[in-house]
Design goal:
heterodimer; A: 144 residues; mainly alpha; 5 helices; 78% helix; B: 179 residues; 8 helices
Chain lengths: 144, 179
């Protein structure tokens, strides 16, 4: 079957018509038992939804902008959380420093004392003289 | 397109039932045929067609004439109504099993046995196409709608409609040559 013939066949289907009784009764039902929905409500809902969408987008950008400004003004030592008290943090850090200094001086003192003791107990450089003295004393003892 | 359609549509949008009645009279056979080829059942086609027109009338206020021909809008509503119908109900009959008389086709045209046989074949072949191919073929060749109006009704580009049309004709040709 040729393409033209198919198209011709299809166009003959145009002769199909709805039943006249159906057409009449449906017309009555559609036009007199239903009515168009109010446009205003639809329009209002549409405009409200548009406004809401725009508002949300604006808020989003404001939020981003505020975040950017806050980051720009934040110094490296700024607290991460706004609820933290800066003065008490500084005091705490100072007391930790003092404590550490005291510990360091104690360690230095103790290590100095240990060195002194070691120096006292360590053999001195006159060891050779003592040996000679002992040898001399032994020689003297033999001669007696 | 019916003469003075823009004016009628504008009146119908404002709730004028007389104006919508004129549009209904003009578009009813077109929408009915379109639905009938889709559902292959006279009673169902009548119910769906009535439902589609009711939806159109109830939503006339939301119809925006800019860039949309009223006919395309109606076809679109009819198309969606058929889809909704199939979501809720299983298809009951196949168009291949239905004789043209059962579809309400004018008996005077079926007097010649040859014509009847050809119609049955064509209807059966249309049933083998997928939904969008059926839509395009019916709108283009049964209802003589231009490509741009078909494109609006099926929510595709004009190029896509041309491709679908070409493919549908090819499939129809193959289906008819088998019979």
């Amino acid at each position: 079957m040729k393409e033209e013939h198919i198209i011709k066949q299809l166009s003959t289907l145009k002769s199909i018509q709805p039943d006249a009784d159906f057409a009449r009764s449906a017309r009555t039902t559609i036009l007199y038992r239903s009515e168009p929905k109010p446009v205003r409500l639809f329009g209002l809902a549409q405009s409200l939804s548009t406004t809401l969408s725009i508002g949300l987008v604006v808020m989003f950008f404001v939020f981003i902008a505020l975040g950017g400004v806050a980051t720009m003004f934040r110094t490296p030592i700024s607290p991460t959380f706004q609820g933290v008290d800066e003065a008490s943090l500084a005091n705490e850090a100072g007391s930790i420093n003092e404590n550490t200094d005291a510990r360091l001086s104690e360690v230095a003192y103790l290590s100095g004392e240990k060195n002194d003791r070691l120096a006292m107990t360590a053999p001195d450089g006159d060891g050779a003289d003592t040996d000679e003295e002992i040898d001399l004393l032994l020689t003297q003892a033999k001669s007696y | 397109m019916i003469e003075g359609e823009k004016n009628l549509v504008e009146k119908a949008r404002k709730g004028n039932s007389e104006a919508f009645g004129v549009l209904y009279d003009y578009y009813l056979p077109r929408i009915y045929r379109f639905v009938l080829f889709k559902v292959s059942h006279k009673q169902q086609a009548e119910d769906i067609t009535q439902h589609a027109f009711m939806k159109a009338w109830e939503n006339m206020g939301s119809y925006k004439p800019q860039g949309y021909v009223f006919g395309s809008w109606l076809y679109r509503i009819a198309r969606n109504t058929v889809i909704d119908y199939y979501r809720q109900n299983e298809p009951q009959t196949n168009i291949e099993d239905v004789a043209p008389e059962d579809l309400g086709i004018d008996n005077s045209l079926l007097t010649k046995l040859e014509v009847k046989f050809e119609w049955e074949n064509v209807l059966g072949a249309i049933a083998t196409l997928n939904a969008v191919e059926q839509d395009v073929l019916i709108m283009r060749f049964v209802e003589d709608l231009p490509h741009n109006e078909v494109a609006k009704a099926v929510d595709k580009s004009e190029t896509a409609v041309k491709v679908i049309q070409h493919r549908a004709i090819k499939k129809l040709k193959e289906a008819l040559s088998k019979e």
